[in-house]
Amino acid sequence: MKSKSNQIILLATLVMASLSALALKNDTQQPINIVSDNQSLDMDNHIVTFTDNVVITQGSILIKANKVVITRPPEKSGKKDTVEAFGNPVTFQQTLDNGKPVNGKANKVHYDLTTEFLTLTGNAELKQLDSKINSSMISYDVKKQQLKAKGSGNSRVKTVLIPAQLNK
């Protein structure tokens, strides 16, 4: 019985993550808009830093943070940007293609566009309707559509699933 419930939890988690990846693909075709109280540019190191009341929108994606650092690698390196967002917490939301919202939050969000790998650390949470995952760290490989959540110390991973909502 325990194995069966673990399989259900894993399946539901993968479904939530897979749906996010589908909407992410559509949203990434939209323009990125960034509004903040302050912005600084380090041209030598290819770093743009946005601070204080940072709001990023792209399609249905909405991210709010205290600080966002975007690092752009040299042109011929074959690498893409990395984005780090810091907050108390950083929050984000996105509407999936099926109309369901996905919300998340963490103290730090790191996204590497080269590897398409997203990491939420510090009081991390992913939520779809009333189903959610809480952990000290949640990572998501967009290409492989694989989600991992890890606890630390006395903090364990907590998942709450509402079957009726997952089936809709």
TrEMBL record:
<protein>
    <recommendedName>
        <fullName>Lipopolysaccharide export system protein LptA</fullName>
    </recommendedName>
</protein>
<comment type="subunit">
    <text>Component of the lipopolysaccharide transport and assembly complex.</text>
</comment>
<dbReference type="GO" id="GO:0030288">
    <property type="term" value="C:outer membrane-bounded periplasmic space"/>
</dbReference>
<keyword id="KW-0732">Signal</keyword>
<comment type="similarity">
    <text>Belongs to the LptA family.</text>
</comment>
<keyword id="KW-0574">Periplasm</keyword>
<dbReference type="GO" id="GO:0015920">
    <property type="term" value="P:lipopolysaccharide transport"/>
</dbReference>
<dbReference type="InterPro" id="IPR005653">
    <property type="entry name" value="OstA-like_N"/>
</dbReference>
<comment type="function">
    <text>Involved in the assembly of lipopolysaccharide (LPS). Required for the translocation of LPS from the inner membrane to the outer membrane. May form a bridge between the inner membrane and the outer membrane, via interactions with LptC and LptD, thereby facilitating LPS transfer across the periplasm.</text>
</comment>
<keyword id="KW-0813">Transport</keyword>
<dbReference type="GO" id="GO:0043165">
    <property type="term" value="P:Gram-negative-bacterium-type cell outer membrane assembly"/>
</dbReference>
<dbReference type="GO" id="GO:0001530">
    <property type="term" value="F:lipopolysaccharide binding"/>
</dbReference>
<dbReference type="InterPro" id="IPR052037">
    <property type="entry name" value="LPS_export_LptA"/>
</dbReference>
<dbReference type="InterPro" id="IPR014340">
    <property type="entry name" value="LptA"/>
</dbReference>
<dbReference type="GO" id="GO:0017089">
    <property type="term" value="F:glycolipid transfer activity"/>
</dbReference>
<dbReference type="GO" id="GO:0009279">
    <property type="term" value="C:cell outer membrane"/>
</dbReference>
<feature type="domain" description="Organic solvent tolerance-like N-terminal">
    <location>
        <begin position="33"/>
        <end position="145"/>
    </location>
</feature>
<feature type="signal peptide">
    <location>
        <begin position="1"/>
        <end position="23"/>
    </location>
</feature>
<dbReference type="Pfam" id="PF03968">
    <property type="entry name" value="LptD_N"/>
</dbReference>
